[in-house]
Amino acid sequence: MAAAQDISPQSEYIQHHLVHLNSSGEKQSVIADFGIVNYDSLFWAILTGLVVVFLLWRAAKMVTTGVPGRFQASIEMLVDMVEEQAKSIVPNAASRRFVSPLALTVFLWIILMNALDLIPVDFLASIFRMTGLGAEHDDVLYYHRILPTADLNVPMGMALGVLLLMFYYGMKIKQPGGFIKELFTAPFHAPGIGALFLAPFNFLLNCIEYAAKSVSLGMRLFGNMFAGELIFMLIALLGGAWTGFNGASIGLGIGHVLAGSLWAIFHILIVLLQAFIFMMLTLVYVGQAHEGH
Questions:
Q1: Which of 241, 10, 27 has its CA nearest to residue 145?
Q2: pTM value?
Q3: Distance set, CA 145 to CA 77, 123, 185, 235 (Å)
Q4: Which residues does residue 22 pair with via DSSP β-bridges, in sequence order?
């Protein structure tokens, strides 16, 4: 009890903003806990995914043969950009018919999810309280994180999907027998008895390679967005330190506005860059699944 009372208001503010609205009501303490469902991450991830699907569907419905509007032109530029990247990475034209739209969807989906971090930390809670719903939904407001990509489960789940695609295309292009054979015969090749000796080492190296690709893919997105979320929380503390019209409060308030504005502008680049990196690595890993060692 004494330890809990020793926590500063600033530390408590940060800690409670890192707790998800989940089935346990507590902060997840391990990397993988299949007994906990983070409802807030699922809600915002599904919502942004549906928005992306709707926008792409709307763009497809609005396609005209004449001069395109701004919305159609923007979508066409994105489609062309992704298709050009896919052509240079994924050699199989039949595979690109699925992989290119998938990469475009992932790119826009991650952009929307990452962009949620630009919403002020306590904005939704303030809206609820102003409308008189705050007292009724205190638990929902208190245990709620709006940024899905700062929840390790979401980026790792997406990375797992990419890993399954690697297995799928590896088996489709090389046939199941050829794919399994490659696990034991590459990257070190040897004739006769040497192949049997190297088989366990090849299999271990291939397992490590697949695990490293998927883990690094998810952790890269999670780490960058989690760090950005923490910085926004620290900046919010500057504004929360307001105690009245005095020198310290005014200085912290000005620092809050300047730091928040500068970091938000810089964070826009991070939002786009992380989405582009995830999309490109998805194409690269699927492209590598088409190739042999």
A1: 27
A2: 0.86
A3: 33, 12, 46, 17
A4: 38
Alpha helices of the chain — where are they, by DSSP H?
A: 2-5, 9-16, 39-61, 70-89, 93-115, 123-130, 138-142, 153-185, 193-240, 247-289
The answer to whether residues 247 and 233 touch, using CB atoms and an 8 Å cutoff, is no
Instruction: Report the 10 Å Cβ neighbour count for 46.
Output: 11
Residues serving a catalytic function are: 216, 220, 224
- Per residue of the chain (293 residues), give pLDDT as tens: 444 455 566 677 777 677 777 766 666 666 666 677 888 889 999 999 999 999 999 988 888 777 778 888 899 999 999 999 999 999 888 889 999 999 999 999 999 999 998 887 777 766 666 655 554 445 555 567 889 999 888 999 999 999 999 999 999 999 999 999 999 988 888 888 888 889 999 999 999 999 999 999 999 999 999 999 888 888 887 766 666 666 666 777 788 788 888 999 999 999 999 999 999 999 999 999 988 65
Q: How distant is the alpha carbon of residue 134 from its chain centre?
A: 29
